[in-house]
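Fold it.
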Amino acid sequence: MTATENGVKDWAGFHACFGSRFGKLPQISPDIATHKDAVLKSADGAILRLQAVGRYLRMTLVEADDDANCFAAHRLFLITKQMSQLHNMCHNLPYVIWQTTAEGGLIWQNQAYLSLRDDVGGHTAHSLFDLILSKDQTTVKNRQSLHLSFQKKTNWYDIISIWSQNVWTHSAVNINEIIKAETAQRNFVQTLGKTFAEMSIGLAVFDQNHRLVLFNPALIDLTSLGAGFLSERPILTHFFNQLRENRIIPEPRNSTAWCQQLKELVSRSNEGAYCATWMLPNGLTYRVRGRPHPNGALAFLFENISAEISLTRKFRTKLDGLGTIIQNLEPALIVFDSLGQIRLSNQAYAALWADTEAAATNVQGRSIIEVSRSWQATCQPTPVWGDLRDYAITLEGRDRWTALVTRESGDTLHCAISPLPDNGTMVCFQVSGTSQM
């Protein structure tokens, strides 16, 4: 054997082969520089000589019997020792291990199995577990529970059975903690299901593998996806492809566009940023939101906002109609919001102040301070403008009031200041002599 700075190469393998026969063979590789020649004897009379030769360690084995079978005997000795080591290792492992015949008769079991048998109570020539095995498969997995009579509890085990050389070898692992976690998760999902059962918003929750794990009845109503389909726990892409088949999703231009749309939907949902309004071919409008959850789960909310959209459209139509009416009224009108900023004004107002500084301030969002000062600049001195500024930013105790102001041109303006329901203020101007509001 060659020596290095770290000792003799493969000394561990050499010791594993001969250490059991030669008890004084050191476990740690000897130092060639200081090693002295040694002669070791075994119980069967064999001699092992260790001799340092330069950078090498020479080992010479001399068997007591020169018969050609001596090497076969040594191999048998090693195999027997390895079998004993493997047997001891399997026997003392904390996992339950046992072997059975094809008919289920016990052949061998380790200490963990024997301890479990004592906890169960009673002795039997058959396995503790009633396993479903098939010779068509070389590896079979089972999950079973076992009642421990003395401890008065039930343990759960995952069991792997391997068929080899006409023998079944089984190993069982206690999975009580996994069962507890799965039960807690199942109870949590059931609680969520009960919580969302009465909601009108459809809910679909996908786990970290993008498989559907929770949905509520509203989802069935909104998507026309059958309960059978949803109960099969489809993956996310299959779920949305089925929505497309049912035309419960805006139809993309082509399949490539659909794949890209679906990819972006999942990506944005993972970021918590997906919120879209779907205008469906059947005339309905859905608001769809995607939200990420811990451990990679995704939740989608489907809400029918058709009535809301319809109401908004009707309201907008009414507003547009009122806007047209206001624009065509004869009195000059300007409206400020609760912060004293211009919300709107009509054509008569623009015409009344067209040739004054007020024309430049007739912009939505400009403040009543700027606007009133532009009015003040074209009128004779009066406390009306200061009172108007204070009135516009007062939120309580406001009543309608009127005042007369005189412009530098000599015209007299009748001003009517009225509070609006949202704490806004409407100012109406009419040239004195015309019909007043």
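The chain has a mean pLDDT of 83.
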